[in-house]
UniProtKB/TrEMBL annotation:
<dbReference type="InterPro" id="IPR014710">
    <property type="entry name" value="RmlC-like_jellyroll"/>
</dbReference>
<dbReference type="InterPro" id="IPR011051">
    <property type="entry name" value="RmlC_Cupin_sf"/>
</dbReference>
<dbReference type="InterPro" id="IPR050807">
    <property type="entry name" value="TransReg_Diox_bact_type"/>
</dbReference>
<dbReference type="GO" id="GO:0003677">
    <property type="term" value="F:DNA binding"/>
</dbReference>
<keyword id="KW-0238">DNA-binding</keyword>
<dbReference type="Pfam" id="PF07883">
    <property type="entry name" value="Cupin_2"/>
</dbReference>
<dbReference type="InterPro" id="IPR010982">
    <property type="entry name" value="Lambda_DNA-bd_dom_sf"/>
</dbReference>
<dbReference type="GO" id="GO:0003700">
    <property type="term" value="F:DNA-binding transcription factor activity"/>
</dbReference>
<dbReference type="Pfam" id="PF01381">
    <property type="entry name" value="HTH_3"/>
</dbReference>
<dbReference type="InterPro" id="IPR013096">
    <property type="entry name" value="Cupin_2"/>
</dbReference>
<feature type="domain" description="HTH cro/C1-type">
    <location>
        <begin position="20"/>
        <end position="74"/>
    </location>
</feature>
<dbReference type="GO" id="GO:0005829">
    <property type="term" value="C:cytosol"/>
</dbReference>
<protein>
    <submittedName>
        <fullName>XRE family transcriptional regulator</fullName>
    </submittedName>
</protein>
<dbReference type="InterPro" id="IPR001387">
    <property type="entry name" value="Cro/C1-type_HTH"/>
</dbReference>
Amino acid sequence: MQETSDIHQPALEESIGSVIREIRLKEGLTIAQVAELAGLSRGMLSKIETGSTMAGLDTLARIARALGVSMSVLFSKYDTSAASAQHVKNGAGMEVVRRGTKSGHTYHLLAYGQGPVKSFEPFLITMEDDTQTYPTFQHPGTEFLYMLEGVLEYRCGQQSYMLEPGDALSFNGEIPHGPGELAQTPIKFLSIIVYPHSGE
């Protein structure tokens, strides 16, 4: 039986770095120009491009903005087709800061989509702070919530739902939705967004 362990699967940081370099060269930008636009040192951007360091999500977001692309494009070459499954250990999900969210509201992305079209995004959301007003979200596809801990009022259109551990809620993502009152913290729930296939 043939050994397959010697096949090199590029690490996530290598994959992201090569995409950043490719886009930068395609746009005719120098490392210095992109670094300045992203508020980074040239040395740091160079390390990210070569895959010798893994940038945090905030840094990747700034680089994506500097290149004029969405952040998901930076992950487009990360291919896990060599593996049949993607295993993200407890606490190892990438922390994502969504528009309008601040401290006390943490999103951890539990799987990374492959290819240019995302089919779904699973998040583990933790909320501990009730001092801020949470924004309203709208996006394509269907969203499914599953409560793990705490009690949360969740707004969906004109309706409000009080979610307790074990409760599930699913809805059309185009309907304005978002957290309301944090009735009992800490709150932890899964949010899975399933995107429509292109052409639908």
